[in-house]
Design goal:
This protein has 229 residues and is of the alpha+beta class. It has 7 helices and 8 strands.
């Protein structure tokens, strides 16, 4: 039986929990990609975009991905949700079974006059998740936690593919990037309690040990991009 990240904590004794958190703390930084060498390779130059744009990314639990993107200048909103599946308006419980085809995703609405798509990709690959993990991120396993870019147009597709090729050829990671670059079809916002989960639950153990290191890395490596900490 699959145990969700909401169910596991009550099942662990206090001593076991402390030990588990100690181990997780030791590996959280690596999982959050804070060990990736800096400066991180720049993305390819993209044609100028006009008007507000949207981009959809998947990279494990959407709490941390959303938390990273909504801190960037030029990002008007970051919404947690589900993309890439076959079921309309799926619930979190359905997606968590891994049978709907969806990935936990984040739709980013941004102003390209302030932040470009290439910069969003750079943040996505360098601090938001580990793009070399196939169908899992950290403690979360299953296709619903896969790494994916759901491109909205040909520019996004070409930019994402070119950047992945550049990162792989540069040997940025020990392993090759497994991020899927696929066309966007539909996005379904997640339940209200998932939205802004990191900000609303900063002391939640999962957030503390898996997602806050991403926020720390964002502030350390890209302070010029921050709208807020």
């Amino acid at each position: 039986m699959k145990i969700s990240r909401f169910e596991i904590l009550p099942r662990i004794s206090a001593i076991a929990l402390l030990f588990a958190l100690f181990l997780v703390a030791g590996t959280a930084a690596a999982q959050a990609r804070v060990t990736v060498s800096q400066p991180f390779p720049d993305p390819p130059t993209t044609p100028a975009e006009k008007g507000v744009q949207t981009a959809v990314f998947a990279g494990g639990c959407f709490w941390g991905i959303e938390g990273v993107f909504e801190r960037l200048k030029g990002v008007e909103s970051a919404v947690s949700g589900y993309a890439g599946g076959t079921v309309k308006n799926p619930s979190y419980e359905q997606v968590s079974t891994g049978t709907t085809g969806h990935a936990e995703s984040v739709m980013v609405t941004y102003n390209p006059s302030v932040i470009g798509y290439g910069t969003l990709l750079k943040v996505f690959f360098s601090v938001a998740h580990d793009p070399t993990e196939l169908d899992f991120q950290g403690p979360d396993h299953g296709t619903q936690y896969r790494s994916a870019i759901f491109y909205r147009n040909d520019i996004q597709k070409a930019t994402a593919l070119a950047y992945i090729a550049k990162l792989d050829s540069a040997g940025t990671y020990r392993n090759r990037i497994v991020t899927a670059v696929v066309p966007f079809e539909a996005f379904y916002p997640a339940e209200a309690y998932h939205q802004h989960f990191l900000d609303n639950n900063p002391d939640y153990p999962y957030i503390v040990y898996w997602d806050l290191p991403k926020i720390d890395a964002l502030a350390r490596y890209y302070p010029q991009l921050l709208a807020r900490k």
